[in-house]
Amino acid sequence: FGVANGITVDTHVKRLANRLGLSSSDDPAKVEQDLMAVVSHDEWINISHLLIFHGRRVCHARKPNCSGCPLRHLCPSATQ
Known about the structure:
Elements: H1 11-19, H2 28-38, H3 44-57
Helix pairs in contact: 1-3
């Protein structure tokens, strides 16, 4: 526990990585590589948890809550 050998990529992480412009791939292994290139190693565990939580609570697959999103000003996919 607590040892990061990579970044966990589930449907939420993949969706957010794509929407935030951190990856353009649908392949979880490629999304992981893209995220590992931009996220510092000591944050690999946290980034998965944060993206999963954000995907469940704010950035839903079908109807994202862009107006209530704290990342809307950074997100290229945000709608008004």
